[in-house]
Amino acid sequence: MYRKTALVTGAGRGIGRAIAIELAKNGYDVGVNYFHSRERAMEVCRIIGEYGGKAVPICADVSDFQQLNQMFDSFFEEFPSIDLLVNNAGISKFYPFLEVTEEQWEEITRTDWKGAFFCTQRAAQNMISQNKSGVIINISSNHADGCWPNANIYAPTKAALTKFGRNAAMELAPYGIRVITAAPGYTDVGWDKSDPIHRAAPKIPLKRFAQPEEIARIIAFLASDACAYMTGNCVTIDGGSLLPILPENDYEPMEELV
After folding, report:
1. Environment class of residue 51 by beta-carbon count within 10 Å: exposed (0-12), middle (13-18) or buried (19+)?
2. Which of 34, 154, 175, 251 is flagged as catalytic?
3. DSSP string, 50-93
4. Which is nearest to 170 in space by CA: 179, 157, 159?
C-alpha cells in the first residue's frame, strides 16, 4: 500500500503533534520537525510507528534559512518526494505595543511568517519537480481577524500568513498544488488549569476550547481528496469565538432584550 508523505513543522507538541499522529492514521509517513522538544518528538515518532507509518524526527529552527533547507534535505534523504506540508511551527508571544523591541519582532515574524513562506517554496519546488499535485496547509490563527491585547506582532504575522496562502494558491494552482489556511482559535494545548486564559471558555459560543485532535482531524480532511476543489481558502476553527460583536448578551438574559 502506497503511503503519502508529509512534513509537519513544530510537530513535537500541541496542535502539530496531533496533526502528525492524525496523518499517520490516514496513511501518511511523516517528517516530525521539532526545535526544542526532542523527547516529545521521539514520542510522536513512536506513536506514528504504531499506526504503521514511518516517522523521521528532524531538528530545525524554521526561522533560520540554513536550518530550514537542511530540514528539507534531511526529509528528502528519507522520502524522495513530499505530498503534504503543514506549516504549523509558530511562536505565541504577546507584548504591549509601546514596549516591543526589534528582537521580539524578529523572533516571532521570522518563525511564524518567514519560516512558513520558505517552507512552502521548498515543498512546492519538489512537488513540481516530481509532477505531484500536492497540498500545503498553513496554520494561521483567528487572531488574523480578531483583535486581542498585546498581539501587535503575533496577529499581523498570522494575517500575513493567511494572505500569503491566497497568493500562493493562485500561483501554484497551474501545477495542481492546493494551498489552504486553517485558523484555529482557543485550543487546549496543556495550559495549567490556573492559567487566566481558561476564563475565556464561557465567552466562546460553544462554551469550550478545542482539543488539538479536533483541529488535526480537520487538517487531515482538508488535505484529503474530499477537498480536491478547495484552494486559497481560510478555514476558521474557533468554536464561534469571533461571532459576538456586542456585549449586551453578557449583561442581560436575551428575553429581557426583546
Report:
1. middle
2. 154
3. HTT--EEEEE--TTSHHHHHHHHHHHHHH-S--SEEEE------
4. 179
Alpha carbon distance 217, 219 (integer Å): 5
Q: Convert the pLDDT of each residue in 43-71 to its tens digit.
A: 999 999 999 999 999 999 999 999 999 99
- Is residue 154 part of the annotated active site? The answer reads yes
Grid cell for residue 164: 500569503
Express each pLDDT in 14-29 by its tens digit: 999 999 999 999 999 9
Cα angle 238, 246, 214; round to 5: 10
State the sign of the Cα–Cα–Cα–Cα dihedral 167, 170, 173, 175.
negative
Q: pTM score > 0.90 for this model?
A: yes
Query: What are the backbone angles phi and psi of residue 88, rounded to the nearest 5°?
Result: -105, -25
Instruction: Copy the grid coordinates of residue 190.
Output: 496543556
